[in-house]
Amino acid sequence: MQVSRYAPSGSVVTRVFAHDADFANNARLSFLILPGDDDDGASALFDLDRDLGAVSVAADLRQAPRDRYEVVTRCSLLTCFQLLNLTGVKFLKFD
């Protein structure tokens, strides 16, 4: 996906989706950005809303040293029986 270098801080650029078939607190999911394998700085440039999964701009992208970033996300479901982790990856390219 492409993101404008001029997108202001706070702009939502994409959203991570996950679903659990349970209900109430048993279906509550939490999202976060994980550092990449080479920790390329994506976690400093983007924020992820823990409850909604919305990925937004967190810094001035015009100052980013690279044109392409990998954002690795984790979705966790915490119940009394288990902790489930689902991971997704988004590639963001600046235009």
What would you say about this model in short?
The chain has 95 residues and is mainly beta.
Largest sheet report:
4 strands, mixed
Measured as a percent range, the helix fraction is under 10%
The value of Rg in angstroms is 14 Å
Q: Order of SSEs, N→C? A: EEEHEEEE
How many helical elements?
1
Spell out the blueprint of helices and strands.
Elements: E1 2-3, E2 12-15, E3 29-34, H1 42-45, E4 46-48, E5 54-57, E6 68-78, E7 83-94
Parallel strand pairs: 1-7
Antiparallel strand pairs: 2-5, 3-6, 4-5, 6-7
Written overview of the protein:
- With 95 residues, the protein is mostly beta strands.
- Helix content is 4%, strand content 44%.
- It has a single domain, classed as Immunoglobulin-like.
- The protein has one helix spanning 42-45; strands at residues 2-3, 12-15, 29-34, 46-48, 54-57, 68-78, 83-94.
- Strands 1-7-6-3 form a four-stranded mixed β-sheet, with no helix packed on it. It has a three-stranded antiparallel β-sheet with strand order 2-5-4.
- Strand 4 and strand 5 (54-57) form a beta hairpin.
- The relative contact order is 0.31.
